[in-house]
Amino acid sequence: MEAPPGTVSAAVREHLRQLCLHEFPCGTGSWNKSRFLPQTRRTWRELVPREEVAGGPGEETVEDLQGLVSSPHSPWALLEGSSAEDRFLRQLAIQNPLLLKDAFFYSYFRSLRVVDEQVSLVDKDLLKFSKLEELVLSANHIVEIDAVNLPPTLKVLELYGNSVTSMECLCARPPPALQHLGLGHNRLLGPLQSLPNLISLDLGFNDLTDLQGMVASLRTLQRLRLLVLQGNPLALVPYYRGFTIDSLARLCVLDDLIVSPSEKHQFRGLSHSGEFLAREAQFAVTIGNVRGVLDTSVLDPEPGPQGPFITYSYYVTYHFMEDEESEGSGFVEVLTEVVQPAPSMERLGEEVPEEPAATAAAVAEEAEGSPESVPTTTSQSAEMGESMVSGRSTPLPGSIDSAEELAKLRPRIDPQLCPSPGTVLFSTVHKPWADVIHCNYEMQHTLRDLVPLKAFLLAGTTVTIVEEKITSWVVAPTSVENPLTAKKGRGEKNKKETEHSKEGKDRNNKAAAKEQKGSKKKRELPKELHHDPPILRVLGSGLVALEPLLAGEPLVSTVCNFGVIRTVQSDRLTLFRDSKNKKGKKGVETGKPKSKAPPLAVFESDYQPEPLTVEVQIQLNQYRSTEEALRTLVV
């Protein structure tokens, strides 16, 4: 009777069929019929010993048939990576094909590997394998396994990469000889029940969150020596390893690392304080230097008396999980940062080149006030061409009063700067351009919702380098602000009195006016500046893999490389500007004439473009002793 599809027995039968044990060059047929003819009754004369008669011209020798199944160039050869059992069965099917019956298979197999065969049920026909000791059912669709259908001789059971959510049926009547159980990469939620003879247990990469409850159930396994729990949300808490080691005194290996006597000593007594330890994960994110940023300011024209005055700042953003107790939404902060810049008033100084620096300083101070500010962009600039807007743009409203206005603003945001669901977009402080931009950013993240945190770590975080451009304009004074126009229609008497009082003030402040005349001639009339909404440009964006933090690594340190965005022309302009400024200052200080600029041909011959990079480190906090863990309780 054929086994139903989707069962282990059906998968085994299909595998034996694919071995072609009853087809050429295996089995019986015209290629070896003389060796397997039915025996007939012989006469006494035929009992006299005589030489064996060679096979017919259409038959093959055993050596030739074995060569057809063992040669890698033969069309009958097994696929690369076939098991030793498969190779033995092919050889046996040539030497003695009459032996291959169902009874032989059930007593022959001591190990069955049914991997990625769409199996969803462990059926009772598996009990026919009377000598089975190892059963591997990884990468299938098994949701639940009934221990009643497992052979009692089973010692090793692996169910990696299935959809098992509970071990209740498996632990009800487990095989008495079971020594190793592999249930990694499933969907287990609850603790383990009694498995008396278990020596090795792998529960890695499941959805287990209760470390205290899991350890309490594992204490009943007196023979347990090897344990794997990494990849579970419970392994992200800082006291995970120390608490597990101190709770399971007989454990020899935890997460593929030997438990040393010094570790046991360092974490002594931690298991008694388990109920007081917070079930939360702690991360530290550090963003270091940014290199290879294109100096866009050298490509802009010199501003005129009325502007535009353009300032640039640079920062780095990254996504991270949002704790359930955190306040606010990163996406709202983004919109606020884009729409809030209403016309602001500043003084326009005498020297026009000083104004962009003043505006950049104001932007930097504003950014320092909110370390979790989330910038957005109006246009994606994966193409590093001229995507900057240098003209006047219409200012956005100062606040969002309705959902319709909010929906109108959403298309302005670059998708790379929008946080994914359940995450917040964090950013460093805005910094002006430099050959090496020192971010010096550190942020502590404490997260209590551990199951979504595991999914976030598997997906990774996106790191983005953003350029912010702000354009400022001089606002022309209105007629009300002009005192001469307001008093134009008055009489001659008032005019003379005003001139007389003005002359008196000039005489009294003559000394102060002379001092200001030489240094600030153009600041006689204050001018107002209007700031356009910031224009954001993504210079580089990439994914940082965080899965090593789940796999037991305490630190992920990388340098994100986004390729070269600088050009020879832009670097030549930057070098020329910097050398000109340095020589001008040196000439003023020493009174010597300016020296000639270095030859640009030398710069071009030695030009080595530096890629756009940013240093990123994400560390998972782990306690190294009982004292360190208990210190947090006191704090």
Strands, helices and their partners?
Blueprint: H1 8-18, H2 62-70, H3 84-95, H4 102-108, E1 111-113, E2 134-136, E3 156-158, H5 168-172, E4 180-182, E5 200-202, H6 211-218, E6 226-228, H7 240-247, E7 253-254, E8 257-258, H8 261-266, E9 281-291, E10 309-321, H9 330-339, H10 354-368, H11 403-409, E11 423-427, E12 436-447, H12 450-459, E13 461-475, H13 483-486, H14 492-508, H15 510-519, E14 528-531, E15 535-544, H16 547-550, E16 555-561, H17 568-590, H18 600-605, E17 613-620, H19 626-634
Parallel strand pairs: 1-2, 2-3, 3-4, 4-5, 5-6, 6-7
Antiparallel strand pairs: 7-8, 9-12, 9-17, 10-11, 10-13, 13-14, 13-15, 16-17
What does this structure look like?
The chain is α/β, with parallel strands linked by helices. The chain has 19 helices and 17 strands. The protein has helices spanning 8-18, 62-70, 84-95, 102-108, 168-172, 211-218, 240-247, 261-266, 330-339, 354-368, 403-409, 450-459, 483-486, 492-508, 510-519, 547-550, 568-590, 600-605, 626-634; strands at residues 111-113, 134-136, 156-158, 180-182, 200-202, 226-228, 253-254, 257-258, 281-291, 309-321, 423-427, 436-447, 461-475, 528-531, 535-544, 555-561, 613-620. It has an eight-stranded mixed β-sheet with strand order 1-2-3-4-5-6-7-8, with no helix packed on it. Strands 10, 11, 13, 14 and 15 form a five-stranded antiparallel β-sheet that branches. It has a four-stranded antiparallel β-sheet with strand order 12-9-17-16, with no helix packed on it. Helix 2 packs antiparallel against helix 3. It is extended.
